[in-house]
Amino acid sequence: MAHMHDGGIVERRLRPIYDWLDIGNNKKALQEAEKVLKKTPTLQAARALKALALFRLGKGLEAQVVLDALADEKPSDDTTLQAMTISYRESQQLHKVCMLYENAVKSEPTNEELHSHLFMSYVRVGDYRSQQRAAMALYKFAPKNPYYFWAVMSIVLQAKTSEDNTKRGILLALAQRMVDNFISENKMEAEQEARLYIMILELQEKWEDILKFIESPLYSQLVPGSTAQASIPYLKKLGQWKRLNVVCKELLWDNQDRWDYYVPYFDSVFYLMKENEEDADSSIDNTARKSMSSGRTLRGPYLARLELWKRLAVDGDPTSLIGSALCGARLEAVSWNDSTEEREEKCREFLTCLGFDENSEPESADDIQRHVSCLAAWRLVAAPQPSAGALELAATLRGHYLRCLQKGLVTSNITEFCPADNYGILASSAPIVEALCLLELVLHHSPANFHAKLLLVKLYHLLGNALAADSIYQRLEVKHIQLVSLGWLHCARLAPACLASRALQLLADTRAFLKHHGKDSVEHLTYAYKYGTFEKLVELSAWAARLEACADNRDLNVIVNYEPPQFQDENLKARTFDQEVSYLRLKDALVSAIALCIELADSRPVDEKKGHYEQLNTCIEAFSTAMEKCRQLYAEKERISISAPFPSRIIAFVNSPVPYRELYATILRLVGELAISRTAAAHDACQAVARLLPKAQDQLQDEIAVKGDPVWSMRDRLECLSNYLEFIGIITFLLGVCNELFSPASAKKSKKKTSHSPDEIKTSELLNELNNAVQTSITFLEHILDEWPKYEVSNMDEILAKLTLDDKYQSPVENKLKTGRDDMLNDVRNILKRKSKYLKSLLQ
Amino acid sequence: MTTIRPFTCEDMLKFNNVNLDPLTETYGLSFYTQYLAHWPEYFQVVESPSGEIMGYIMGKAEGHGENWHGHVTALTVGPEYRRLGLAATLMNILEDVKKAYFVDLFVRVSNKVAINMYKNLGYIVYRTVLEYYSGDPDEDAYDMRKACSRDVNKKSVIPLTHPVRPEDVD
């Protein structure tokens, strides 16, 4: 084994390799490593770096050979181990890092650094038991607090993941005893250690012990000044209402804006009120008066009164409390217990409580803010208006916005928007094209107003114009985590609006984000141990798991919503998520089947293909069954709401009159039968698809026929078209697979005329027939595209006239709708052209 | 009306109404998780009664000796929740960093609203950092500071007379 003891020389020699690796020039790094190895062929660190360079150059196998040889030598120097760790990490062989350090600590049993790396290697693979062992071993010869608590935390994690309740109890008791010992020996040092202790007690539901600990001098020493706040949840758990009341009241004296103190405070008051009315009354009055005396611009006391009102509404007359409570943006906070009727009756009080009504014309930014808040609160509680009333109100609001614009009350700049914008936002319930024009106008004057942007994206998609939506979406600059929380707004609508290329791009970005995160998420767990942030550890690993799993990460609250509560759909999030997952499952089954078709297309003898053939049939069966089941499950049409996701694609897909289930199943079966030379069955399938196609065309024609307003139905019709386009794409691809099966490229090259059997001639004929039928279908689609209706807005001039203030501003809406439609159609035409060309090349 | 609580990973899924503001940067995921793992106590969120994020602060404690200080990495309040004193509440968290000599932060020289707000909270422009923000064109930053009680002689807030380059900022 070649240990070079002169660290300086080694480091100097290795430096250039690191430098090349750092800037991503792996080829140079490899050359440099080879150079070093010429002089010192056994230098482990250089070999480890060579392996890393090889791996990054895509030469995984060569890298593995070097790594395996190194691992056998059981290296223990840090440079080598670190470089090997990186290689293993990047090649997803984290368990090998554990082995590496297990061997290293054997040769240097008192090396603190190596032991701590060993611990972290277990963290990366989530081996809690080994973590515990490694941490304790470490603590034995390096008795430092963090190592001890690493062990405690490792036990807690074993308990948390244990399904056996007895075992869980024993583990938690052990963890608690370990900390108890430390406390009695006065060894506790850090806030996070105290928090870990509370976590352990919480998992055992020992509320009294927690309270005792929080109230101890040790806790205030470790976490100064937080005893009162920390005790709130446990006083509540223990039902100690009087103490809770006192603690919260004390906290509220100094923090009048803290909702997290008001809520438990009210909890205590209302509980005590039941027990002893007189006592409780005095507490309410006292604090309410105190709140009212606040001269600052805090919303707390006001909203607290609303909350109080809500709670009092159970008995008594709370309306006397209404007043200047409307100084905030959104009032969904206070969810009303009142009946709908009662609420709607009182709704005008929200509008008029500050002396405004819908026709008021405030002149200052503050008054405008108050006015729009009153209007918003009114809309939130009022009855849904008959359409005439809604139009009239939208017109009034538009008038307000234009008035502000004219009077210079729209004071936005490039980075900030202004209260007057909200008139425009509130008026977005106007007829759609009018709303689009108004919102574009708002955005023109307030380029930072993301509410206008979000609404515009939704409204353009409502009209099925994905390119127009894209023009706005780009301006939201959605990136990183927003791709998953906000991407749904746009991404989900691109493919059904026939904008496949843009959909692909956005999905690829999103996938890259998730993939990148998957790689580095375990590293954050090692940081959390390093810094002793035990609470975050649990959170971070749950987060990593969430991003890897198929979880609903959509932020559905980001779009402003002024619909009254009866339109708020409690199950919306869960239901739409379930629909999307079902749709993905259907698509997944299709993709799996297509992948099997590709597997079946190779040149193995028929006997060896039986396994894949069976799998394909199972897959087709599963797809068919799922289609049928989904058709029953998702028969109902969803209500369209501007702040909610559009109905999932599954609804149009499974309810389509075009028989997609049979179409997909039969074309997939054709490939399978052809692959194992069941000629008769293949012929049947081929003829069946060819027969289905003309019917499917008729059904599609029906499905996309203009019914009602052509502008409004554009989105639905495009979605139906997109489903058919996807089918055409897949059948074209599968005909290519059939071609490969029937006359492999290798055979063609030989150019030898081979004589065909009558069966083969028949197959060739039938495939040609089907190919021609698909081409006919494409021609049919091209005709549909040529006839595709335009966005004809009959009253466009009238709409624009309503918004015209000066001649300089040109509304972009009409042009966006037109070019969006034209470009999308051209995009589809180009795709079809390519398919057609490919199909022609397949004809025998 | 506000609940102040630690920022959690899941908050990243719902901070859009704050982060869509053009002056609020949405960083790569690991930037947030790194702060969460290292300085969870200085990464706090203010939340409305309906559970909406009104704003948050992301900070750290760093430096040696008399340079031990709180640093504000990001402070943002959603457009609907401005002028309610939330930023001041959040800044208090960093100003409470144990035994710190001062708190500092960087701000775009064009961000007048923020600069004024920090001035009102007692911060001064300590120095200008040239072309700190990359973009087209690059933009200078003010390094603003406020001394904490531990810095008795207010040594940390004597402004530099010359601007510095980003590479000279530790």
UniProtKB/TrEMBL annotation, chain A:
UniProt-listed InterPro entries: NAA25_NatB_aux_su (IPR019183), TPR-like_helical_dom_sf (IPR011990)
Keyword Cell membrane found: no
Presence of the UniProt keyword Transport in the record: no
Keywords: TPR repeat
Domain of life: Eukaryota
GO CC terms in record: NatB complex
Protein name stated in the entry: N-terminal acetyltransferase B complex subunit MDM20 homolog
UniProtKB/TrEMBL annotation, chain B:
Organism superkingdom: Eukaryota
The enzyme's E.C. designation: 2.3.1.254
Keyword RNA-binding: no
PROSITE patterns, alphabetized: GNAT
Keyword Nucleus: yes
GO molecular function, a single term: protein N-terminal-methionine acetyltransferase activity
Main location: cytoplasm
Catalysed reactions, semicolon-separated: N-terminal L-methionyl-L-asparaginyl-[protein] + acetyl-CoA = N-terminal N(alpha)-acetyl-L-methionyl-L-asparaginyl-[protein] + CoA + H(+); N-terminal L-methionyl-L-glutamyl-[protein] + acetyl-CoA = N-terminal N(alpha)-acetyl-L-methionyl-L-glutamyl-[protein] + CoA + H(+); N-terminal L-methionyl-L-aspartyl-[protein] + acetyl-CoA = N-terminal N(alpha)-acetyl-L-methionyl-L-aspartyl-[protein] + CoA + H(+); N-terminal L-methionyl-L-glutaminyl-[protein] + acetyl-CoA = N-terminal N(alpha)-acetyl-L-methionyl-L-glutaminyl-[protein] + CoA + H(+)
Family as reported in the entry's similarity comment: Belongs to the acetyltransferase family. ARD1 subfamily.
Task performed by this protein: Catalytic subunit of the NatB complex which catalyzes acetylation of the N-terminal methionine residues of peptides beginning with Met-Asp, Met-Glu, Met-Asn and Met-Gln. Proteins with cell cycle functions are overrepresented in the pool of NatB substrates. Required for maintaining the structure and function of actomyosin fibers and for proper cellular migration.
Protein name: N-alpha-acetyltransferase 20
